[in-house]
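Hi all, long-time lurker, first post. I run a small reading group and we've been trying to get comfortable going from sequence to structure in the token notation. Rather than ask abstract questions, I figured I'd post a concrete chain and ask someone more experienced to write out its structure so we can walk through it together at our next meeting. Sequence below, copied exactly:
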Amino acid sequence: NGQTITAISVSSIEEIVAHVPEGVAVAAIDEVQFLESDPAAVVAGCQTLADRGIRVIVAGLDQDFRAKPFSIVSELMAVAEQVDKLFAICVECGAYATRSQRLINDKPAPHSAPVIAVGGLELYQARCRVCYEVGEA
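-- Answer (accepted) --
Happy to help. Here is the structure in token form:
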């Protein structure tokens, strides 16, 4: 439809709150699990925006590659007025994918690998609970 939306790259919720001017109707935050802010600060920042009458839409992974919750997402889900959990399709069997399979040299990453590793299809696959694996520690 020809509409465009301005996007900015930020590392903290404080930057987001500072960049959203008066009169903005919607603020969208993608990949919220990568924000460097404390989870409580992210919740407070989102509530500050919402209290200004801004609709806040947040997207992010709820679990890391070890299937452990990203606390920032858990805390946001607890206070959200609406939560829609979307699923990818498992690359192995076609079921709903609820896990992010991290790969290193085409093998499951070990549990001891860093939680954050920026990458795309070369590092991550969508997997269901049955097809998901964590490599040796």
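A couple of things your group might point at:
The longest strand covers residues 99-104.
The mean pLDDT is 92.
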